[in-house]
Structure formats: structure tokens, C-alpha cells
Amino acid sequence: MARLIRPKVHAFLERILNHKIIRLPTNSWLIVPQRGASALAVQASYNLRPPTGIHYVFNSCAAGILSLHLKYESGESIVKLSEPISMPCEWSLELNDHVSLNGRVVSQGPIELRDIAWMISELNFASSDGKRLSRLLRHRLLGKFVGIGQDYYNGNNYKNYDGEKTSYGIDILNRLQRHGTIDSLLDVGCATGILLQHAQAQGIKVAGRLSHRTSMTATQRLF
Fold it and tell me: The domain that contains 49 carries what CATH number?
């Protein structure tokens, strides 16, 4: 009797919740939307250290073609690939002398990664019935970290921090000022002082806590 009731209860719950309920091999349950969602349900590694690899867990419930474009935040491409996929599933992407996916080589190397950088996984999925899902994920690449100094802001992590973040201070201030007038501002971890410079230009009293390696740049900017 229980074997007859359980499928009916399962189907009933899926219908009223409008979600697919899947029992995984680990005996845990996966509940995902059956339709209507535009974002791809996926989790992935965030902090990456050598040997560099990204583990993706896809929690949607569909079959089709998944495309991945892994690139630096500044736009330079690292690898592109497109694979048939049946979700839920997992991907293990290794970035060493070559690119491998779940142990299978998909792109010949060598892959030269920066020591410190931000990477973006641009994921686009097209199901067999025409449904499209997408997602952007960030990863922090941590290589041979030697500290935060001028090389960090001009080459190792950013090509040109001051140039890339020109609008940073204005954007942050605009968001803060939506909630009221700002008389003073403390920026903990103020880097080279871009945010504080914009605040100071508006007559706001500023103070910042920063590394001694960037203190000279910030001091020149603010005083």
C-alpha cells in the first residue's frame, strides 16, 4: 500500500508546489522549479588556490546544452566550452597545463593564470524544449599571494585600479546618500582612497583605515 501511496503523494506535492522533487543518490532531496525561472540554479567554488579548479553543482532539472565562458573580470577570455548536460549534475573543471572537465581534456594548454585576479563564469543553458537559463558567477583566484602593494593595484590583480574604478566612489556615494545626508565617512580598507576623494569633494569629513603599502597613494590623493 505504501508503495502505491508514495508516488501519488510525490506527484501531488510537485503539482501544488510547481516544483520538481528529486531524490538524490545521497538520499537527500532536491526541490527545484519546474518552469518560470530564468536563473540557472548552480553553486560553484569561490576562492581558488593552486592547483586551480572550479566545482559546479547544477541544481536545475532539465536536459540540454550548457555553454560556459570563463573569463577574467576585465574581459579577457580563459576558456569556452559547450557540452550536453542532464541536470541535476556536477562539473569539475581543472585549469592546469590544460583544461579538463570531469577528468576529460576539453582544451589543450598551457593555461597561464594570474597570481591574483577575479574570474567570471558566464553560464548559458538551452533545454531541449527551448527553455533558456543563464547565470553569472564570480571566483577569486588566489595564486602566489605576496601582499597588497602597488603591484596588486597595477598588474597582479588589476591592470590599473584607479583607471578601472574611476566611477566607484561616485556609485557608492550615490547609494549611501539615498538613505540620508552624510556628514562624515569612515572607509575601512580604503585602498588608494578613491571613495574618500569623491566624498571629500562634496564637503564630507573623511577618514580611512588602510594598509601601509597603499598609504602613500591615498595620502597624496586626500591631502
Answer: 2.60.40.1220
Query: Where is mean pLDDT largest: 19-23, 39-43, 65-69, 107-111?
Result: 65-69
pLDDT tens readout for residues 15-53: 776 677 777 666 777 676 665 557 888 999 998 888 889
Rounded to whole angstroms, the Cα distance separating 93 from 105 reads 10
Q: What range defines the domain where residue 127 resides?
A: 37-142
pTM of the model: 0.56
Q: Show which of 142, 161, 180 is a domain's final residue.
A: 142
Domain count, the chain: 3
